[in-house]
Amino acid sequence: MFRTVFSRAAPHRLTAAATLLCLSAPAAMAWGPEITRAAPDPAPGTVEAAPRFKPLPPPSLNFYGSPGIIDMPSAEMLPDGQYAVTYSWFGGQSRYNITFQALPWLSTSFRYNGIRNLNLFGFATYYDRGFDVRARLWRERRWLPEITMGLQDFAGTGVYAAEYFVATKRFQTPALSRSRSPGQLKLSAGIGWGRLGSYGAIGSIGGARPSFVGGSTGGELSYDQWFRGDFAPFAGIEWQPDERWSLKAEYSSDAYVTETQVSDVFERKSPFSFGLEYQHSDRARFGAYYLYGSEIGLTAQFQLNPKQPVTPMLVPAPQAIVPRSQWAVKEADWNQEWAQSQSQTTAFRDRAAEALKEDGLILEAIDFKGTVVDLRFRNPRYRSAAQAAGRVARIMTATLPASVETFRITPMRDGLALSTLEIRRSDLEALEFAPQTSDGLQAVAGITEARPLPETALQSSELYPAFSTSLGPYTQPSYFDPARPFRIDFGVDLKASYAPAPGWIIAGALRQRLAGNVKNTRASNSVLPHVRTDVGEYAQYGTTLENLYVARNWKPGRNLYARATVGLLESMFGGVSAEVLWKPVNSRLALGFEGNYVIQRDYDQRFSFRDYKTLTGHASAYYELNSNYLAQVDVGRYLAGDYGATFSLDRQFNNGWLVGAFFTVTDVSSEDFGEGSFDKGFRFRIPLDWMLGKPSRRGFGLTIRPTQRDGGQKVHVPGRLYGSIREAHRASLKDQRARFWE
Q1: N or C of the chain: less Cβ packing under 10 Å?
Q2: Cα–Cα distances in Å, from 607 out to 307, 496, 543, 568, 572?
Q3: How far apart are CA 215 and CA 156, in angstroms?
Q4: Taking Cα atoms as reference points, which of 686, 649, 680, 685 lies closest to residue 665?
Q5: What is the pTM of this model?
Q6: Mind listing the pLDDT tens digit for each residue in 631-684?
């Protein structure tokens, strides 16, 4: 980040940047106890620089996608924010795992399993979904091991249900040669229940427990079975001689009763397993194993961390701030007579507009009041509102007269003024080279609610009416059909929008499906109105109208924002939607209400409708927690007529990554809801600038539900308010204050 910010800086500014970078580096690199990298002794009489060894990779993952040995868990945690996708296979079992390190001490996993020849449910391959959660109870100390508690498959059908406590201790081992880094030895041992208590049990708590505890529909928490039944020990050892290779051995307490005794999935001859893993790159790891005395296994592990972009960000250096003391040397340079001249203020507006355009920003309006200038701009380029505001501030210092001392910078989005950042020009001049420049700016800048646009403001003459089009690819995945777990359609979207005036937009999208197999998805068996489960019917047509709507955004009062939308809102529903949001600029809390009257669209997704109509809406509460977490609760009526609440928790990193989870509980019984018992899922979004290294507000995101059913479903309305409003309020600007100088 600092490389681009300080490309034009003086040497003392580079020193400040290096200091800040060094202060932040240890937290970003902390993967566990420090492994000392001892340098080899130089030859007598010579001066030799100490070699710089590559650090050992983060913990490897077991067959369940969690830190572990082979099939058993370890107590290790991934680096904070780490996102891992793994595939493992052995003995007729395939497991697709997604793991996210939500907190330094807490990780969660989602798993999709395929078990061949499990002769219990009439499928050639039985597919099952499950969730895991792990919490570190004790961090590793000098003599004490790391200790972690885990719940495995705690919200599924219970095929892989288990609970455990596990401890891991790490030791440094000598380097194999002078050119290699020191290695590491890991010893793990634990006690398991459920699956992990089925072999070699040494005791029991609360009597026997069933193999499948989740019921026929799954999805329910079987907390009454946790840490009950037989418990057994397990253990493992891993030796990493260097940063590439890893040797593993373990003793398993999983008897695989269902797979070996009830069915004939594979033959388990021994509790011992052995493996060899290779770290191909910082993000990819592969392994081969001999398991249970009879089976060959394979894994592929891929790990990403939002804090480590794929491509370094290459952003043109911002315009340098030239202190007025260097160029405004005459008394005439400081007079304010220009403010009384229409031609001069118009000239300054045009200069600012041209400079903003060169930086990918758009001037909406500018108002001159003597020594105070209020500039309103649109940001279609930079994902960070703080970065965009910093660019605007630098441009104002370069284009406005020396007598202008106070800048009021107001970002605009869809016709709404989001907030106003007020800062003195003299503070900008003083802080640009300061050692703690970001914290200094936070101390002197003010963030307030945007005032109404003054009548004297000079608006841009090029903005309205505005027409834009785009053509791009789309993908439409469908998950977890028992006949085919993954289906996908892909094609192209032609999007167009027309903005006749501030706050108004007319938009639509025409979709052309080119190929795919979503149309072959199994027919819905839902007893509720088919508000989402007829996805296969909607996928039968090649050319469709994805949406077509008119929307209006405005501010009805202090701290209030409003939206009204009418038209074809999404592929399955059209109608009328209205939303009001209360969100003070300096508050972490926001409250909102949305009401929708919608009609279900015909399967061909043109202009005709089906008979189903409903009124749906929610009251919502949003709260910005520490560490970039956002909690949201929605209470109201859903598309199928059910009443209930949705609970969401998202973590959004400062670089735009988002990972979150949600669940919905309504008055629909688990039997009426069907498979999965209640609606739940997780979502993630990866910003394009993180992958491409170029500024962009766009990103790639997915929402994955273990099972798509009709209960707890909302209508998808374009342009909902909260996300775009909060990005320019105090909490977000504070978290990204360092980007102001980029």
Answers
A1: N
A2: 45, 18, 13, 8, 11
A3: 9
A4: 680
A5: 0.85
A6: 999 999 999 999 999 999 999 988 888 999 999 999 999 889 988 888 999 998
